[in-house]
């Protein structure tokens, strides 16, 4: 029996070797004794072994932290579990291979080579889904006006910057003033566009979003202004309403306005001036009543100088300018946002939310967040699904966040050692004390997950003293 099961596996492995070697996924096949039968070349390369040499070796001697022998023993599949190999957290799955009800071997795959890659692919899949939905919506007829899902209450954060921002948008929401939202990618511009709509008198009317950067240039005009039946080859019977018509009575949100091609800028300007749109192929314009909100992460003033953005359009859209601060400038919101995303995932999946360790939280606080809140959201999502024992340790964070934290802490340590070893001309007693105070405050905050009341208690100072020190050390 053993010999025949062995030869079956050998035959299968030989036949599929070429195919399996071409995969990006890493594959290992073991026999019923948990000895390696097949290892694909990408996996062998990563392990630093020769695929042929390890044949017949115990899998536990070749692959660190493997559980293939347990899969054989129990005959139970394990999907998407974390396996630490050569210092990285991989995402691995293991399946028993059975023949007439008997386990004759097992196949293991490593599909993501670290948790960061998982996050990246997850974002990629989300982007593909968004594109698919865009195309599907384009085909569906009639098109349904979308509505706004967010309200001011969905905006997390109580930093001074966020409080001021919330006050501003509450003031500008009522009335039909045109708003230009500016800020780096992922700072929440779309969220705020929804909130402004929700707070306005148009809250019950449609909220229509157009991502100017996502629509191919040749489709933009018909997407924005619609088309008449027979306007061009492939035009739908009965024509199609544009986003302007769909937003009639409500709010039109033009995201990534800085990416609008010049030809469309001229047409948009005309619509905003005339307050009427003309569908492609139509000869009679129809009036539109919309509130316009636009957003961009691009420096419009530079684009004007370069001649890629029209100055007259700029003045038309820039009536009220709201700037969203990058996440690194409102560090005190990080803990709250991280917790918010973990709790949201917990509600969505029915799983209990894992907790960030103090070290992981410190890394989040010290990271510079080029992708802002969206980056934090993605990292929390990856950590949520890969956490074990309901904990998110530093090792589960992507290497860029970890490395940054390590770099910061080594800078800090070298500063600290400078203060404790020799007295230097630059290190007066006051400077040394200041540095020590700043480190103590940062540590207390990270241990208290950003909760200032707790941090103040731990430091034995009043909350108002903590606030003074936060602003003195520019930690607020
Ligand atoms: N203050 C906040 N509270 C809770 N979630 C937030 C907050 N700000 C942003 N988010 C979330 O972060 C993600 C990114 O926000 P959003 O899409 O609004 O950013 P953006 O500035 O429009 O990005 P882009 O310029 O790339 O389009 C979204 O999932 C959003 O819900």
UniProtKB/TrEMBL annotation:
<dbReference type="InterPro" id="IPR025944">
    <property type="entry name" value="Sigma_54_int_dom_CS"/>
</dbReference>
<dbReference type="Pfam" id="PF25601">
    <property type="entry name" value="AAA_lid_14"/>
</dbReference>
<dbReference type="InterPro" id="IPR009057">
    <property type="entry name" value="Homeodomain-like_sf"/>
</dbReference>
<keyword id="KW-0067">ATP-binding</keyword>
<feature type="domain" description="Sigma-54 factor interaction">
    <location>
        <begin position="155"/>
        <end position="385"/>
    </location>
</feature>
<keyword id="KW-0805">Transcription regulation</keyword>
<protein>
    <submittedName>
        <fullName>Sigma 54-interacting transcriptional regulator</fullName>
    </submittedName>
</protein>
<keyword id="KW-0238">DNA-binding</keyword>
<dbReference type="InterPro" id="IPR013767">
    <property type="entry name" value="PAS_fold"/>
</dbReference>
<dbReference type="Pfam" id="PF00989">
    <property type="entry name" value="PAS"/>
</dbReference>
<feature type="domain" description="PAS">
    <location>
        <begin position="12"/>
        <end position="63"/>
    </location>
</feature>
<dbReference type="InterPro" id="IPR058031">
    <property type="entry name" value="AAA_lid_NorR"/>
</dbReference>
<dbReference type="InterPro" id="IPR002197">
    <property type="entry name" value="HTH_Fis"/>
</dbReference>
<dbReference type="InterPro" id="IPR002078">
    <property type="entry name" value="Sigma_54_int"/>
</dbReference>
<dbReference type="InterPro" id="IPR003593">
    <property type="entry name" value="AAA+_ATPase"/>
</dbReference>
<dbReference type="Pfam" id="PF00158">
    <property type="entry name" value="Sigma54_activat"/>
</dbReference>
<dbReference type="Pfam" id="PF02954">
    <property type="entry name" value="HTH_8"/>
</dbReference>
<dbReference type="InterPro" id="IPR035965">
    <property type="entry name" value="PAS-like_dom_sf"/>
</dbReference>
<dbReference type="InterPro" id="IPR000014">
    <property type="entry name" value="PAS"/>
</dbReference>
<dbReference type="InterPro" id="IPR025662">
    <property type="entry name" value="Sigma_54_int_dom_ATP-bd_1"/>
</dbReference>
<keyword id="KW-0547">Nucleotide-binding</keyword>
<keyword id="KW-0804">Transcription</keyword>
<dbReference type="InterPro" id="IPR027417">
    <property type="entry name" value="P-loop_NTPase"/>
</dbReference>
<dbReference type="InterPro" id="IPR025943">
    <property type="entry name" value="Sigma_54_int_dom_ATP-bd_2"/>
</dbReference>
